[in-house]
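Homework help board

Subject: predicted structure for assignment chain

Our instructor gave us this sequence and asked us to write out the predicted structure in token form, then describe one feature. I got the tokens but I'm not sure how to describe them. Can anyone check?
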Amino acid sequence: MRPGDKRREAAIHLHYDLSAEILAGLARSLTTRKPIDEPHRAELSAAAKQLCTALEPR
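My token output:
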């Protein structure tokens, strides 16, 4: 944020079926390539765990 600027927000509409297809495609692609280096793998894993937690029923 720049000094003096008001905070801005953006709303994004996620199409759940499309998002699910993208995630499934990403998972499939990861099984057919070289392993991801540890720092990037850890970041992706943490983000995936956050997504799983957010999807749990409340």
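Reply (TA_rk): Your tokens look well-formed. For the description, you could write something like this. The helical segments are 16-31, 38-55. That's the kind of observation they're looking for.
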